[in-house]
Amino acid sequence: MHRVMTLPFITAHVVQQYKAMWEAEIDAVVDEVRSEAVAQGASFVVRRRLQLMMNNIMYRMMFEARLESVDDPMFIEATRFNSERSRLAQSFEYNYGDFIPILRPFLRGYLNKCRDLQSRRLAFFNNNYVEKRRKVMATPGDRNKLRCAIDHILEAEKNGELTPENVIYIVENINVAAIETTLWSIEWALAEVVNHPAVQSKVRAEIMDVLGDDEPITESFEMVPPPGVEKLDVSEKGGQFSLHIANHSVIAFHPISA
Asked: For position 151, which CATH number holds?
């Protein structure tokens, strides 16, 4: 399974293939956040728009599909499933069963909720994404074209390396690990910089000390930001899940005036 997942997700070729898409999705968030800030003239929650960005990055890599907006019915349903999953995972009922064994027989209702949610989540991904890609791959002209990650996974299933259950398991877990955890990392990075502007200055000073004045940080971004815009490199903030963000991705924002 590790070998199957490496090719469509964790190679230099993947970075080059999807880099422009990553940057386009990030730019769309920056533009929309700026317009929303001007329109509302006050603070607003950016989490939902960042969540859409992460969904689009992952869905375009995984399924060659894109969600149009935060009002897209597919986005609403996917985020509802993720929220419900997080709520159940953090439930005290589960913790009670872990630490007080005598209570385990009384947790059947909780376990039934978990099984019901899992079955609905798996059906959502299978019906809306996996089966659609199966049909595309079955088309004679597209049979030998592996366009996105699910194509590689389905090809491995066809060769007997994975079972249908493995396929759905991968899709379901990628949706959580690649989207929610990276989203939390981005939120943390933004909050850290907005609340503590000195952090960004410290990071930039360290980069200047280590790399020097003339060494570019990335292929596409200048080291010195445009006037009035600050930059923060968050590529190392995501831990093991940072592989799902473009290497040295940059989030641009206008600092809050005192």
From this structure: 1.10.630.10
Sequence-ordered list of residues with C-beta below 8 angstroms from that of 55, at least 6 positions apart, any chain: 67, 75, 78, 79, 179
Q: Give, in order, the Cα–Cα distances in Å from 145 to each of 58, 134, 148, 152, 239.
A: 19, 12, 9, 10, 32
Distance CA 245, CA 58 (A): 9
Task: Return the bridge partners of 230, or none.
Answer: 253
pLDDT in tens, 57-107: 888 888 888 888 888 888 888 888 877 877 777 776 666 666 677 777 777
Token duo for residue 152: 């590689």
Total number of domains constituting the chain: 1
pTM summary value:
0.68
- Residue 205: alpha-carbon gap to chain centroid: 29
